[in-house]
Amino acid sequence: MTNSDNNTKSSQSQENGTTSTKENNTEAKKEAWGFDLYPERRSTFKPTVSNILLGREGKEGIEKMKCEKNVYECVKSSPIVKTMMAALKSSGCPIDIRRHISCEVCDYSVSGGYDPEMNQIVVCQNVCTRKTMVQGVLAHEMIHMFDYCRNELNFKNMEHLACTEIRAANLTHCSFMSAWSQGDASWMKIKQAHQDCVKTKALYSVLAVRQIEKAEAVDIIEKVFPKCYADMEPIGRRMRRNSEDMFRVYRDASYYGYE
Description:
This protein is mainly α. The protein has helices spanning 3-31, 49-54, 60-77, 79-90, 97-100, 131-150, 158-173, 176-182, 190-209, 214-230, 245-252, and strands at 101-104, 112-115, 120-124. A hairpin with a 4-residue loop joins strand 2 (112-115) and strand 3. The termini are far apart.
């Protein structure tokens, strides 16, 4: 074998190695649960001196206790959280708050999340500092948990992901004021405001979880929107902010078999 042959094979081997590495990186990126928005979950969180001096870090123990107290109070007293827990139990997926809900440090761009690999809701203790915020996160993420339990949701399927984000935004997030704050509402298009709010919220959530182009995410959301927007299980209604809807949902739960 000549030196030329050796050099050629060596070059080919390097090229194949490079190609293999690129494919592995692409695959890892494709299958990622999301960006590194949950550093404590990934064991990458380390308080920095600058953030400690600014008061943003260094109180993790206190924040966790406050967060866990708010979670406990929501589980005991929040009508919407109690309804979602009853729906999950009736579907064969009862929640143990010590196992299925975790207060953690997160990136400040998110308030919570659902980890399908662990079947666990993450409440961002450094962001959700009030009980009402914790309630909103629990209700939203329990929709994802319900879909994962009842509908065999596959988070690696982009249409499944878009659908559950549409449902969570539709049932627990969007109101006229939410739509107004997102720029999706005006007094001239109140009827359309809710749908636009749901699409915007779902888009932001999909882009945060999966690394795809915005145009692709929009296309997927538009494709599944009619069916997923019409699906209001297990709540049965869209909840308006500052209304009695949450209590109506709780009162009606028995009609759906959620005790």
